[in-house]
Design a protein that fits this description.
It contains 11 helices and 13 strands. It has 2 domains: about 10-210, 3-Layer(aba) Sandwich (Peroxisomal Thiolase, Chain A, domain 1); about 220-360, Thiolase/Chalcone synthase (Peroxisomal Thiolase, Chain A, domain 1, 3-Layer(aba) Sandwich), CATH 3.40.47.10. The protein is of the alpha+beta class. The chain is globular and about 65 Å long. β4, α4 and β5 form a beta-alpha-beta unit. The chain has a 9-stranded mixed β-sheet with strand order 5-4-6-7-1-8-13-12-11, sandwiched between helices. It starts with 7 loop residues before the first strand and ends with a strand. α8 (about 255-275) packs across α9 and α10 crosses α11 (about 325-335).
Length: about 350
């Protein structure tokens, strides 16, 4: 006899954001001088598609660019714990669950490391059981939410117990010192990569609760139907996140949009064909806004109407690219009818593309 395991569904979601920072004020109050008013840096800032970002650290008030990595990690702990508690508590309340109900607690972050980890500290502070299983996902970057969701969904399906996924990123801790070449003359490709990173990234914590479907837990959210991964290892040097003595340093090739333009269509088609669907059958899209050009490329490759990409553009404009937390922030804004489907897409180091197919069940 074949036993069909219940699928996992997202039944709660919440986020927590640090204080807002006006994008133009960041340029006028810090980065203009940081880059000696370099025209290329100014152009990057003006074309980022961002109005406001969130930051645990505002560089116009506190300059961390000369801090060592140890000091940045200590600050990560101080800032991350209250943000994580707020996001997870909000998601649990949205799902109508107590912290003691959680069977698996997964935390994804690539912007800070502490031991004991956030998974242990937050489980303790939120009142999760001492038997709760924990999983930490580190250094996957912007796509980490989707493999995290897949792992949590597998646990929920196999064990029949709720799981929580928290994505918490604080890129504001990793402002890099400007190099001599960036301060005069022609900036190098590496200088340009830092300028782009400093113009795009913001801080956020986002959490979701997953529960099993079945008689005891009737469908009431977004069911996780499938998750797909594609890694294009020949382009591994196109996106990097190096641990240095001055925090973490982004490497971001200008070729990333071109790679995605070639790869996103076939990957999405592979995901959808498994379930006898096409792009036209999808009701909503949660596309990780790695930058404005990334969203544009995805829209062009999949021939998506502008209104389906509005949640991605809105999140980018209002909070910036918050690494792994961003696609969950976009997903919160996607509205589809009962029975409708959503595809979530995120991209990161590898180059890696992750896609998830979800179906609204309520």
């Amino acid at each position: 006899m074949t036993v069909r395991l219940p699928r996992a569904q997202l039944t709660g979601a919440a986020h927590a954001l640090p204080a807002p920072m006006d994008q133009q004020h960041l340029w006028d109050g810090y980065f203009r001088d940081h880059y000696a008013d370099a025209p290329v840096a100014r152009k990057v800032w003006q074309t980022a598609g961002i109005t406001t970002r969130r930051g645990a650290v505002d560089p116009t008030a506190e300059d961390l660019s000369q801090w060592g990595t140890a000091a940045r990690m200590q600050r990560f702990l101080a800032e991350a714990v209250p943000l994580g508690k707020e996001a997870v508590a909000g998601a649990l309340a949205d799902a109508g669950l107590a912290a003691s109900d959680v069977g698996l607690f997964t935390v994804a972050s690539c912007t800070g490391y502490v031991t004991p980890g956030l998974d242990i500290l937050l489980a303790r502070d939120l009142g999760m059981a001492d038997s709760v299983q924990r999983l930490h996902i580190g250094h996957m970057g912007c796509y980490a939410a989707l493999p995290g969701m897949g792992a949590a969904a597998d646990f929920v399906s196999a064990r029949g117990r709720p799981a929580v996924l928290l994505c918490l990123e604080l890129p504001s801790l990793h402002v890099q010192p400007a190099t001599p070449s960036a301060l005069g003359g022609e900036p190098t490709a590496e200088d340009l990569q830092q300028m782009v990173a400093h113009a795009l990234f913001g801080d956020a914590a986002a959490a979701v609760v997953l529960e099993p479907t079945g008689p005891a837990s009737p469908p009431s959210g977004l069911e996780v139907v499938d998750v797909l991964a594609r890694t294009f290892a020949h382009t591994a040097d196109h996106m990097t996140w190096a641990v240095t003595d001055a925090g973490f340093r982004m490497g971001l090739s200008a070729s990333v949009p071109d790679v995605l333009a070639r790869c996103v269509g076939p990957a999405v088609e592979d995901l959808l064909v498994r379930h006898r669907r096409t792009v036209a059958d999808v009701d909503g899209w949660a596309v990780h806004p790695g930058g404005r050009r990334i969203v544009e490329v995805v829209g062009e490759a999949l021939d998506l109407p502008e209104e389906l990409l509005a949640p991605s553009y809105d999140v980018l404009r209002e909070v910036g690219n918050c690494s792994s937390a961003t696609v969950l922030l976009v997903l919160e804004r996607v509205v589809v009818p009962p029975g409708g489907t959503v595809v979530a897409l995120a991209f990161g180091p590898g180059l890696t593309l992750y896609a998830a197919l979800l179906r609204r069940t309520d």
